[in-house]
Write a structure and sequence with these properties.
By secondary structure, the protein is an alpha+beta fold. Helices cover about 15% and strands about 20% of the residues. A 3-stranded antiparallel β-sheet has the order 4-3-5. The protein has a two-stranded antiparallel sheet with strand order 1-2. It has a two-stranded antiparallel ribbon with strand order 6-7.
């Protein structure tokens, strides 16, 4: 049993299995961007806004990880600097990498079709000055990656 504390909120994550089971690679859905920490819209000023942690989303995600070791990719920074855009391309790369058993993502940028629209296939982003994502977002499922045929998979 492990605990996660965040600004006075606590999330307990427990394993459903009594003893660890061998990890099996399985086919998972494509996934989507989901918000796990939301800024409370009730406050008047941005500086005084409270955070709301969506524990159910975290529980659901952890249940999909199984017994795989976990790696987390984080991008943080000021608003309107391309974080969601970059995360969308990371998702695209991880999707390609997940389809292989040897750690070679191949043509993950789809050079035969370089103008493939990313809209609706990752984290929301758009041109302009208005923010599209607030709070903390993550992908709705882990990517099960195998770096080589000899190594065990990793949940990213």
């Amino acid at each position: 049993q492990e605990g996660l504390a965040m600004s006075g909120l606590e999330l307990e994550i427990t394993s459903a299995a009594a003893k660890p089971q061998p990890a099996k690679r399985k086919s998972l859905s494509a996934g989507t961007a989901i918000q796990i920490v939301q800024l409370d819209s009730g406050s008047k000023t941005r500086a005084s806004r409270n955070l709301k942690l969506n524990t159910q989303v975290l529980r659901d995600l952890v249940s999909k990880v199984g017994d795989y070791p976990i790696a987390v990719i984080v991008i943080a920074g000021p608003g309107r600097k391309g974080k969601s855009f970059m995360l969308t391309y990371i998702v695209r790369y991880l999707q390609a990498l997940e389809r292989t058993d040897d750690g070679n993502a191949g043509d993950w940028m789809d050079n035969d079709n370089p103008d493939v629209a990313m809209k609706g296939k990752g984290f929301t982003f758009r041109n302009g000055m208005d923010q599209t994502t607030d709070g903390i977002w993550m992908w709705s499922r882990p990517f099960i990656i195998k770096k080589s045929k000899a190594e065990s998979p990793l949940a990213v």
